[in-house]
Amino acid sequence: MAKATKTNKTGASKLHSTKNPISENIRGSMVELLQTHLATSIDITYQTKQAHWNVKGMNFIAVHELFDDLHEVVEDYVDKIAERLTALGGQAHGTVQASAGNTILEPYPLDLVKSEDHLRRLADSYSAWSKAAQEGIEEASEAGDALTEDLLTEVARGLDKSIYFLESHFQS
Ligand SMILES: [Fe+2]
Hints:
Protein name: DNA starvation/stationary phase protection protein Dps
Domain Ferritin/DPS: 32-171
Pfam families: Ferritin
Bound molecules: fe (ii) ion
Region (Disordered): 1-20
Strand content: under 5%
CATH class: Mainly Alpha
Oligomer: single chain
Organism: Jiella sonneratiae
Number of helices: 5
Shape: elongated
């Protein structure tokens, strides 16, 4: 069984030993990259549920159900990102408390009610994560990790589709 990871002087985590063919150096940087995306995926999962639970308005049932559909999409990414990270020998920091310190997203306001406010605010979060995911695609490509690049491409494509679903409610 692999040893538990420890944090070294630079704050980066040591990797578990693995037969994964990617070099340790690249695996280390990809684990660090994916750790940020894991935290962000967990954050956005509950931002979307926050909207699902609290939204009110004449189009209640449509947006209530839309937010649940979007939640299912991002929840799938949480697992895929965590398992790519562990496949690379990393230790997933997948708790809500760890995620709170590592997410790239601004805190979601707890007092939003109107459907348009939730739609616009979620579009901001999905857009911020999409931008980071697209930067991650480039980073993974430059590192030569085609599988992490492919995963982040899937994530970014899904996020952009969700942005379209959200924005179509208020675009003129
Ligand atoms: Fe529900």
